[in-house]
Amino acid sequence: MAAQLYPGHHPAAAQRQAPADPDGPSLPMLRVRGRSVMALVIAPEPPFANWFAALDQQMRRSAGFFADRPVVVDLGAVFESVGRDAIPVALDGIEERGLRVIGAEGVGPSVLAGTRWSRLPTSLHGRDVAQAPEADPPAAASVPSLLVDRPVRSGQSVVFEDGDITVVGAVASGAEVIAGGSIHVYGALRGRALAGLRTGAGARIFCRRLEAELVGVDQLYRTAEHWGPDLHGRAVQVRCDRGALQISALD
Amino acid sequence: MCKVVVVTSGKGGVGKTTSSASLGAALAQEGHKVAVVDFDVGLRNLDLVMGAERRVVFDLVNVVQGDAKLPQALIRDKRVETLFLLPASQTRDKDALTEVGVGRVIDELRESFDWVICDSPAGIEKGATLAMRFAELAVVVTNPEVSSVRDSDRIIGMLDSKTRCAENGDRLEKQLLLTRYDPARAARGEMMKVEDVLEILAIPLLGIVAESPDVLTASNVGCPVTLHNPGSPAARAYREAARRLLGETITMDEPRERRGFMSRLFGRKAAA
């Protein structure tokens, strides 16, 4: 059983726009925050009777293990060995035990189609993290920064929630860098950069050349069309100043 | 010492197959023993471009699945005797390939060839990942336009994470082959300039092949351009790229507009 880290609400999806004029009265600013949650991944295996017995035993032994934890069900093994008919059975059984299923993996949406689980997400992005025994003391000092010593390519996502990210190289169009603290890009920033997931408004983004699709700090973001050609291609810093995102040239 | 090269791009239609055939032929013309492998199972084209479509009996899928032996499936080129083609199957799909099977075929090819050139299908799915899986060098084929450049950037990211070379902690060598470059359009600002593409992709340049009817003609008659029309600028570009792959240092000539004196005098104004 592995624990998995899922960025819950992706901050890049945050919509915060100035009220659109043609639509009449000014609407309140919509604020959407980024949040990562720890989900547990369980993988049912046939025969179900044995597997569910083991699950019941685990739940009896440590009652708090699954408490309030979102659960992702890895259905790959069930689908391969028993087939799609077994999948709703597995999911129903898990739900009956009070676990909160937020997603499935190992199968495509087509496998769930037609069942009452058809709306269950099957493409959650996340990575496995080591599930440390609970008795262990928390790690002494978290790593304060992450150094990425190569360009971040299109489609790649660098997420480091514990602190700052430094990229030596460019961040390509279609790539994203998401940091708990500040972001430093020694190259052209062409993709997305979102800073301050953990430190909030104190975080900043620095880049040698601003050609970004989107930059964001804390809960504020701007897309490329918000800053004019004056700043395009220049070395800039991005920071929060009294609730507004400021982008200013460094040279 | 054999080198396994993947010719890849992400985007379709940029010239992967043409470049695989031309680079393969050029390397073979230099005297090296070359196998060009078509990974585009279901949409095979390399056999046509190399003029071997009437000689296909067994294919990559047969060898991967153990239904045929490798020497039975390899087709020797009729023009250059050190050039071989391992065709793809047209009636199957990419799921017919397995990683273990492909690895076995590549290992077997390594034993008897100097160069194994894997012609990747477009996309980032199984066919493309299997084509790049065992390579130690990647030729990234890119057209000077934003969509192709961004797709190539995506592929470079995959080359750095999904190949066995990368998983072993080695950095896979990547080189850029810029194809369908139109100097006239680049000069007018309608196409990305060479330095802009290099700036974005940040990998060394292997060669620049100008857009040319010679390439299309060669593909249509089923003969790599380096064999069909060796004097053409495209053939020269591929030949020089192949020699750079072999470690030679050759200065890179950016293709220039080829105009007569009069059109150079008046053409600019007309275009402006």
Structural commentary:
The complex is a heterodimer of chains A (251) and B (272). Chain A is an alpha/beta fold and 251 residues long. Chain A is 14% helix and 34% strand. Chain A is built from four helices and 16 strands. Chain A has helices at residues 48-61, 76-81, 86-96, 109-112, and strands spanning 2-9, 35-42, 70-74, 100-105, 127-129, 145-148, 157-160, 164-168, 176-179, 183-189, 192-195, 204-210, 214-217, 220-223, 236-241, 244-249. A six-stranded mixed β-sheet of chain A has the order 6-8-10-12-15-16, with no helix packed on it. The longest helix of chain A is centred in the first third of the chain and has 14 residues, at 48-61. Chain A is elongated, with a radius of gyration of 22 Å. The model of chain A is unreliable at 1-20 and 132-140 (pLDDT under 50). Chain B has 272 residues and is an alpha/beta fold. An eight-stranded mixed β-sheet of chain B has the order 3-4-2-5-1-6-7-8, with helices on both faces. In chain B, a hairpin with a 6-residue loop joins strand 3 and strand 4. The longest helix of chain B is centred in the middle third of the chain and has 17 residues, at 146-162. Chain B is globular. At the A-B interface, loops of A face helix 7 of B.
